């Protein structure tokens, strides 16, 4: 394994597990502990993790939330594959609810061939994508706008959602952990997502593999509350085995 490849694997391992010891990393990477310590020093200098006594921790705390522009192009191919599979679940005549997120934005971009659907969203980006589609009835929830996610959230958004019932909600997430559930850094966003779940006949969760095993500050729901999950094929064998054991309906793309 080349040095740069090893360092990338160390960062991914620490981010996935939130923390790691030098001994764990030594075993995982198949190198000496002294090599791991040198790598951790260089990775900390590059601001990719934080060293601790005996190991390292992820810089991405449960309260971390990347800004929308920083997320939009990340794992774009995976998000597009997830979106195309999601669109296959939509039928003419459906009323659908699109959560705010970079993957749900890809769904909005795939909807233009439909001629008889209703779309409700709390996403400024999705609204902008669909604004000229005269064959689709588009509604925006309103509420308090969070610039980091370009999403309307809060009590006004929830009251707006109380007025509708939809066939399908397409839900975005920051974290999907099989024990801790679906999580997001912001409590208002979490409450809005819970309302989106409550008003739908069917809830479809969208999660690229970077979200798997991640835990954020505010819980939205348990994974078992989802009717279906669409996950890209970057999911680990361990994750696939465990989600199958839980009995959660899912599709890999």
Automatic annotation (TrEMBL):
Quote the SUPFAM superfamilies the UniProt record gives. Answer: NagB/RpiA/CoA transferase-like, Winged helix' DNA-binding domain
The keyword Cytoplasm is assigned to this record: no
Give the signal peptide as a residue range, or say none if absent: none
Sorted UniProt keywords: DNA-binding, Transcription, Transcription regulation
Cross-referenced CDD domains: HTH_ARSR (cd00090)
For this protein, the record's Pfam families field holds: DeoRC, HTH_DeoR
Name all HTH deoR-type domain ranges.
Answer: 3-58
- Name of the protein this chain belongs to: DeoR family transcriptional regulator
**Species per Swiss-Prot/TrEMBL record:** Paenibacillus odorifer
């Amino acid at each position: 394994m080349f040095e740069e490849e090893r360092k990338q694997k160390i960062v991914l391992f620490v981010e996935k597990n939130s923390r790691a010891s030098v001994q764990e990393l030594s075993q995982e990477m198949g190198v000496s502990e002294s090599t791991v310590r040198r790598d951790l020093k260089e990775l900390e200098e590059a601001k990719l993790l934080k060293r601790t006594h005996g190991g390292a921790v992820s810089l991405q705390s449960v309260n971390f939330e990347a800004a929308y522009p920083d997320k939009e192009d990340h794992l774009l191919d995976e998000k597009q594959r997830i979106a195309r599979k999601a669109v296959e679940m939509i039928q003419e005549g459906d009323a659908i609810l699109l959560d705010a997120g970079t993957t749900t934005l890809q769904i909005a971009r795939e909807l233009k061939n439909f001629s008889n659907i209703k779309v409700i969203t709390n996403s400024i980006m999705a609204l902008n994508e669909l604004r000229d589609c005269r064959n689709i009835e588009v509604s925006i929830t309103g509420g308090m706008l969070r610039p980091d996610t370009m999403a309307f959230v809060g009590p006004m958004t929830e009251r707006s959602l109380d007025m509708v019932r939809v066939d399908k909600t397409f839900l975005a997430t920051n974290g999907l952990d099989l024990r801790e559930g679906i999580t997001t850094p912001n409590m208002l966003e979490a409450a809005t997502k819970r309302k989106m779940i409550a008003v739908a006949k069917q809830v479809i969760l969208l999660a690229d593999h970077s979200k798997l095993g991640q835990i954020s500050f505010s819980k939205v729901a348990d994974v078992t509350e989802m009717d279906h999950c669409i996950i890209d094929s970057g999911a680990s064998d361990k994750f696939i085995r465990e989600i199958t054991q839980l009995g959660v309906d899912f599709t890999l793309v």
